[in-house]
Design brief:
five-stranded parallel sheet; Translation Initiation Factor IF3; Hypothetical Protein Ychn, Chain: A; alpha/beta; 2 domains; 6 helices; four-stranded mixed sheet
Length: about 200
């Protein structure tokens, strides 16, 4: 019996879930073995599998968790997959993310930055947002050296508008470091906030 192995040791959240979801959604493998090295990843991957209608058996061995996932026959795709669609701007009528800080939540700044990175990674795995709006310390996410620059560039390549507050860039003296998106102003940003899209505040 062929088993597809996904080794997620050392991967930060939500990468183990993303990697597992790709294989489950592809429907190309009936039996999947996912290896993770922490309880949080074990719980998240287990919940994903159960929500997808899969059966799952979890074993702990030498500090690792081995998740044996079996897809139901209804999820197995025998035909060749359709070519991936190219996302144009007309197909990106998703949400608008209003980002006013470079970390998420109160408390540890380091944890907040990790959570922001996790959010951006998750966004790259979904239909692209209509726009990301960066204000205040959020503009640091769009400059050279940003820990989420790769994810932002990926979303921009799929049609997501990136508007970065010019006043904020000037205030922090980082205008010359802008690496993704365009310099914008409050009038333009407000037009996105009051437009037809659902706005999600991140901060």
């Amino acid at each position: 019996m062929n088993i597809r192995t996904i080794d997620c040791r050392g991967m930060a959240c939500p990468q183990p879930v993303i990697e597992t979801k790709k294989v489950i959604d592809s429907g190309s493998e009936k039996d999947i073995l996912v290896i993770v090295d922490n309880a949080v990843a074990r719980e998240n991957v287990s919940r994903l599998a159960k929500n997808a209608g899969c059966s799952i058996n979890v074993k702990e061995q030498e500090g690792l968790f081995r998740l044996e996932i079996t897809l139901p026959d209804s999820k197995i795709i025998s035909a060749a997959p359709e070519p991936e669609k190219t996302h144009g701007i007309s197909e990106t009528a998703g949400n608008v993310y209003f980002i006013t800080t470079n970390s998420i939540g109160q408390g540890s700044p380091d944890l907040g930055e990790v959570l922001m990175k996790s959010l951006m990674v998750a966004l790259t795995q979904q239909a692209p947002p209509a726009a990301l709006l960066f204000l205040n310390t959020g503009v640091h996410l769009a400059i050279e050296g940003s820990p989420v620059l790769e994810q932002l560039q990926a979303m921009a390549g799929r049609g997501t508008e990136m508007l970065v507050c010019g006043t904020c860039l000037n205030y922090y003296k980082i205008s010359e470091k802008l690496a993704v998106g365009v310099v914008s102003n409050m009038l333009e940003i407000n037009s996105w906030l009051t437009g037809p899209y659902k706005v999600i505040a991140v901060g």
